[in-house]
Design brief:
binds calcium ion, 591 residues, Beta Polymerase, domain 2, globular, Beta Polymerase, domain 3, 4 domains, binds zinc ion, binds 2'-deoxyguanosine-5'-triphosphate, five-stranded mixed beta sheet, DNA polymerase, domain 1, six-stranded parallel beta sheet, 26 helices, alpha/beta
Length: 591
């Protein structure tokens, strides 16, 4: 296990102990241990364990040292397994409801006998929760709303998590001797931020073994359908997946059909009809005459298409990338020869808005830079939280200045190829002023400004607040514009159009926050805004080294938003980025 995984286990133990009502000192010991672990380097952890010196780290005592060693060497912990077995799983699930922490959950269990979400719903509906000490009618209402949200969203899954399930399945399918071609289709292939279910399309010479292999995948909890050329399964996470096997000559048609979207398909079929053709998942055939699309495709000679490029060509169109297939004008744009040349993952040369252990990150500055270096990035922008974000261990002026010195020393050392930009994720305070003085902000390479509190402001107040922050002469980028957390929390009320106008007018970047939970500013706004001159930065908002890879989710969103490489600052070479940062906005205005 890596040190961050071990730290997560320690945090989990703390939560479970809290749910059990254990001694607060014991709970705190695990929380402190988790944080202490995060703050040291991976290599140091290996050395400390090898030399049996873990206890020399402040915050790690004997009991913790032993557990950390066990986790590191075996990847397991008997203590945790026992602890898990002693806590009702429904209680852990209740933690997902906003506003419910371990203390409240324990009160619900002890005083009302509530041990799962179903029981909690009932208790709220009966008004019993409102009567509890420390709850009240407002809290009860909030809990009920949280449960409803969870149900509504629970049916969908983050693209990032769905992709992690899909990738090994596609690789496994391709490795089967009977399989000629295999692809993910559906919303996953279109790069949509959330995914309802997975869709796999396979061309195979023999179907039986492929279906059998599919339903036997690790993590499959239930086989919901199993036919000769089709199967559906449900994984433990609740995610479902459909497999469809087709003859190879139908593959491109099936892949296109099941990639969707439905709206795109409808428009493509209309286009085919206008040319006297019938397009379906089975083929492309003359439209006139009797019979269903399937019968026609079977009885007449379908147009032969090797791949989707040929399919589009058969309807006199260039290839339309899956990300654009939302039925939002992409076919008309393709017809006009107006499809943008979409930005690609390989175009990225760096990223801004990254956290370290100085605030609430899980890896040190050096580890983050080493990881960016391993990715081949030319630059990495650090932006830890500012002082008002005390819940995220925001930096004081003095701590920030020390970090700046550390970064300058790291750059001077030439230890890594990656150039490090100093910076901050500076809180936009409730009145729109910034958390640090201009005299300090001026010393930083890149100032990201974000809203982290007072979410309840009305739309006009919130909009004015953000616009004021954009107008601040030291601001380079606006972080996660709406504050949404996908499947968990709506964004705050804000007039997005006005914020975009202000950013363009002031030459400020709006980031495309690439965290799979955010993807904010939403892709639906990007095309129009970028055409009007808004510059984008794909920023992972990484809280650990693994988080840097989230830029891939940002690339999906950028492509859905029709962005080209030129419109994304983080594809630019280092020198051009440096020039832009120094003369914020003039580069944008000049274009
Ligand atoms: P999801 O799973 O809800 O995130 O969204 P999709 O787009 O993956 O939808 P899904 O899994 O229901 O179906 C996959 C694709 O199959 C869909 O994007 C388009 C095609 N499809 C499914 N049902 C229909 C339909 O009734 N009409 C048309 N034209 N296409 C359909
Ligand atoms: Ca799907
Ligand atoms: Ca499906
Ligand atoms: Zn933030």
């Amino acid at each position: 296990m890596t040190k961050n995984e071990i730290a997560d286990v320690l945090s989990e133990i703390a939560t479970l102990l809290e749910l059990k009502g254990e001694n607060p000192f014991k709970v705190r010991a695990y929380q402190t241990g988790a944080r202490a672990l995060e703050a040291i380097e991976e290599a140091d952890l290996a050395r400390l364990i090898a030399q049996d010196e873990l206890q020399s780290v402040k915050g790690i005592g004997e009991a913790l040292a032993q557990k950390i060693t066990e986790l590191r060497t075996t990847g397991k912990l008997g203590f945790l397994e026992k602890l898990k077995a002693s806590v009702e799983p429904g209680l852990v699930e209740m933690l997902q409801i906003p506003g419910l922490g371990p203390k409240k959950i324990r009160a619900l269990r002890d005083k009302l006998g509530v041990v799962d979400i179903a029981g909690l719903t009932k208790a709220c509906q009966d008004g019993r929760v409102a009567e509890l000490d420390g709850f009240g009618a407002k809290t009860q209402e909030k809990i009920l709303a949280g449960i409803k949200n969870r149900e509504a969203y629970g049916k969908r899954h983050l693209w990032w998590e769905a992709a992690a399930v899909a990738e090994p399945i596609v690789a496994g399918l391709r490795a089967l001797p009977q399989v000629r071609r295999a692809e993910s289709a559906g919303s996953l292939r279109r790069g949509l931020e959330t995914v309802g279910d997975l869709d796999f399309i396979v061309a195979a010479t023999d179907v039986g073994p492929v279906v059998d292999w599919f339903v036997a995948q690790p993590g499959v909890k239930e086989v919901t359908a199993k036919g000769e050329t089709k199967a559906s399964v449900r994984f433990e996470s609740g995610l479902q997946a459909d497999l469809r096997i087709v003859p190879e000559e139908q593959f491109a048609f099936a892949l296109h059909h099941f990639t969707g979207s439905k709206d795109h398909n409808v428009q493509m079929r209309q286009r085919a009809l206008a040319r006297g053709l019938s397009l379906s998942e089975w083929g492309l055939v003359p439209a006139e005459g009797e019979g269903t699309a399937k019968e026609k495709a079977e009885n007449r000679k379908s147009e032969k298409v090797e791949n989707e490029t040929a399919l589009f060509a058969a309807l006199a169109l260039p290839f339309i990338p899956p990300e654009l297939r939302e039925g939002m004008g992409e076919i008309e744009a393709a017809e006009r020869g107006d499809l943008p040349r979409l930005v690609e993952a390989g175009d990225l040369r760096g990223a801004f808005h990254n956290h370290t252990t100085a605030s609430d990150g899980g890896n040190t500055l050096t580890e983050m830079v080493a990881a960016a270096d391993a990715l081949g990035w030319a630059y990495l922008g650090i932006a830890d939280h500012s002082k008002s974000s005390f819940q995220a261990n925001g930096l004081s002026e003095a701590r920030l200045l020390r970090q700046v010195a550390d970064i300058q020393a790291l750059n001077a050392s030439k230890r890594f190829q990656t150039h490090v930009f100093t910076g901050t994720e500076c809180d936009i305070l409730a009145d729109g002023s910034l958390d640090f003085d201009a005299s300090l902000l001026r010393q930083l390479d890149c100032v990201v400004v974000s809203v982290h509190n007072a979410f309840a402001q009305d739309e006009a107040t919130m909009t004015a607040r953000i616009v004021k922050a954009i107008e601040h002469p030291c601001t380079h980028m606006l972080g996660h514009l709406s504050g949404r957390l996908l499947l968990r929390r709506e964004g705050y009320r804000v007039d997005v159009a006005k914020v975009i106008d202000a950013a363009i007018a002031n030459g400020v970047i709006i980031e495309l926050n690439a965290s799979p939970w955010r993807l904010d500013l939403d892709w639906r706004h990007w095309r129009k805004a970028a055409e009007r001159g808004l510059l984008c930065a794909i920023n992972p908002d990484a809280h650990d080294t693994a988080g840097l890879r989230h830029v891939q989710a940002g690339i999906n969103a950028a492509r859905k938003g029709g962005l080209t490489r030129e419109q994304v600052l983080t594809t630019w070479p280092l020198a051009k980025v440096q020039t832009w940062l120094k003369s914020r906005g003039t580069a944008t205005k000049a274009r």
